[in-house]
Specification:
CATH superfamily: Aldolase class I
Order of helices and strands: EHEHEHEHEEHEHEHH
Bound molecules: D-xylitol-5-phosphate, zinc ion
Largest sheet: 8 strands, parallel
CATH class: Alpha Beta
Radius of gyration: 16 Å
Helix content: 25-40%
Shape: globular
Strand content: 15-25%
Structural class: alpha/beta
Distance between the termini: 7 Å
Number of helices: 8
CATH topology: TIM Barrel
């Protein structure tokens, strides 16, 4: 059974508390929090005060996806806000080994994110330091984009690397996840599915989460 991490980027910001409570009452496992700086990705999402407001109501772990340059500058702050998992982009952090150690020292679980164009082979010597690897299945920056099918092959390759190194690293996928792509991903070895527009755009978001959970 995959873990489900609904992305609040697709929630109704004018009714954020309502949407957080929906996730609290659903079979979802985590809250996926997308932080964008307008530099690493073209878009800007939300920052610290909004995350503090989310943390006040969320009853499940916060899975914080940093799409920002030099994420090292803010790790302690995100940890203090209540992040349980912090993922940083391989493409945005020069000294990834140090950054992962910093996340763990701050008391959080640590993960690396790869853009669609970054091969999983770059993780060979850092995988043992990761609680989780997040593979982007769209180019980061926006919700509602089309799933990139090559991601399935990447999941299989990454799963083989994890097995080969005898690790229990989780594989999370983000972008264009729905019941169809979700099924392919779970079959390929994905452990955590992020879903934004598929969940929050649904008539019955809780049922939609339940559907993903049972893939
Ligand atoms: C994209 C974000 C995603 C986004 C996914 O840059 O990292 O988490 O919210 O949205 P959907 O599920 O709509 O593709
Ligand atoms: Zn994300």
């Amino acid at each position: 059974m995959p873990l489900i991490s609904p992305s609040l980027l697709a929630s109704d910001f004018a009714n954020l508390q309502r949407d957080i409570e929906m996730v609290n009452d659903s079979s979802a496992d985590w809250f996926h929090i997308d932080v964008m700086d307008g530099v690493f990705v073209p878009n800007i999402s939300f920052g610290m005060p909004v995350i503090a407001a989310i943390a006040k109501h969320a009853k499940k772990p916060l899975d914080v996806h940093l799409m920002i340059v030099q994420p090292e500058r803010y790790i302690e702050e995100f940890a203090k806000l209540g992040a349980e998992i912090i993922t940083v982009h391989y493409e945005a952090s020069t000294h990834m080994h140090r950054t992962l150690a910093q996340i763990k020292e701050a008391g959080c679980k640590a993960g690396v994110v790869l853009n669609p164009s970054t091969p999983v082979s770059v993780l060979e010597d850092i995988l043992c330091e990761c609680h989780m690897v997040l593979l982007m299945s769209v180019n980061p920056g926006y919700g509602g984009q089309k799933f990139i099918p090559q991601t399935i092959r990447k999941v299989e390759k990454l799963k083989a690397m994890i097995t080969e190194q005898n690790l229990d690293t989780l594989i999370e996928i983000d972008g264009g996840v729905n019941d169809k792509t979700g099924k392919q991903l779970v079959d390929a070895g994905a452990d955590v599915l992020v879903a934004g527009s598929y969940v929050f755009g649904a008539k019955d978001p809780k049922e939609t989460i339940k559907g993903l959970k049972s893939l």
